[in-house]
Amino acid sequence: MKSVEQWFVEYGESHRNPTNKTIHWICVPLITFSVLGILWSLSPWVALAAVVCSLLFYLRLSRPLAVAMAAIAALMLWVISNLAQILMLSVLIFVLAWIGQFYGHHVEGKKPSFFKDVQFLLIGPIWLLGFIFRKQGWQY
Question: What range does the domain containing 119 cover?
Fold first, then answer.
């Protein structure tokens, strides 16, 4: 299994352009939120199961990043649980955020990493957290 650093290096290869990076800082959290919202609309248990599965993947890579993602997911689920019409809102956010992502990769001139390996869909959120951890001097 790849280490978290190996995942970050490989993910970073298609995320060097400043415009693409900025778009990712906006769109990756929005996509995460919207996927959880769509899953919540199916059933809160489905959303929780997805979070647990994601956290198990993250725990294999980094306990501190997994804890941070657990906190973020809990906050997102709390917001989602308090919103009306979450399905329509989530679908709208999902579509618009993916348009942004694909535009960013067009600017970058490289395909999204998940075309190579679907696991990169889970790496995006912790790749952003990795930047925050490094900036704060926190080990992950």
Answer: 19-136
